[in-house]
Automatic annotation (TrEMBL):
Domain 4Fe-4S ferredoxin-type: 209-242, 244-273
Cross-referenced PANTHER family: FERREDOXIN-TYPE PROTEIN NAPH (PTHR30176:SF3)
Name of the protein in its database record: Putative electron transport protein YccM
PROSITE patterns with a match to the protein in the record: 4FE4S_FER_2 (PS51379)
UniProt keyword annotations, A-Z: 4Fe-4S, Electron transport, Iron, Iron-sulfur, Membrane, Metal-binding, Repeat, Transmembrane, Transmembrane helix, Transport
Species whose genome carries this gene: Methylophaga muralis
Pfam family, one: Fer4_5
Transmembrane segments: 24-43, 63-91, 133-153, 165-184
NCBIfam families: napH, PRK09477.1
Lineage top rank: taxon: Bacteria
GO molecular-function terms, A-Z: 4 iron, 4 sulfur cluster binding; metal ion binding
One Gene Ontology cellular component: plasma membrane
Alphabetical list of InterPro entries matching this protein: 4Fe4S_Fe-S-bd (IPR017896), Electron_Trans/Redox (IPR051684), NapH_MauN (IPR011886)
Amino acid sequence: MIKTIRIICAGIYSKRWLLTRRTVQLFILLAFLYQLPFIGNIATGNLSSSEWFDKIPLTDPFILLQSFLAGSSLAAPALIGALILAVFYAIFGGRIYCSWVCPINMLTDAAYWLRQRLNLKSNLSISKELRKAILFLALLLSFSAATLAWEIINPITLLQRELMWASMAGSMFLLALFFFDLLVSRRGWCGHLCPVGAFYGFLGHFGRLRVTVNRAESCAGSSCSACMKVCPEPHVLVPVVSLKGNTVVSGDCTRCGACLDKCSSGVLSMKIDLSHKHSFKNIPIVTKK
């Protein structure tokens, strides 16, 4: 019995970051759908613009920027809500949104998990710069067409609409996205196409919450690279694994914690880094998974 409990606890601990992320993601998603006794609404609206506990406004800064470029008048609550989130992501790292908040992450992670189980090798090579180009195009279209261009096809918005109103168009788009990641391009959407990820990558480029190596000597000469095999953005770990730095500083890091779950030697941790030293640059690498 004790041995069984230990095995279960060890299994949970080995997935601690993943389980915590999924809990947070599901809470945020369900917060818009259900009420709590004696409290009422947890959140109203959606991830684009919401109010939590009937008091705290939160607005997606990317949506606000599109609204501004489209010529819309910006209400004070929207400005305050965008400022709250912009400051948070700028301090802790913008792409925390991608792995801890965005519900599409659960869909693409499921596609990647199934892809691994089926041992699918097909992988359309797409430049990561494309998501930046799509970001620029979305902002340009918002300005020229006076509309929230990206919101027309934003899968995050479509998923929330699907949960609330069962939109057939939304279902088809999300299904296409799932099969794109499963059959066409490994982590294609989040890693190469999504402009929301590109925006938050820029916003939180200098975020202070970072993956750090505690005992660099433990990685010296090691061919393990287990952390890179599970990382959705493996290039961010290259300087750490190659001992050219002890902290991940790339804006592409999503702070998902997959590397911490996978590292059996326990040399990695997530810490607030207040130093201003950037001792290495992003080094691209192609890894096989």
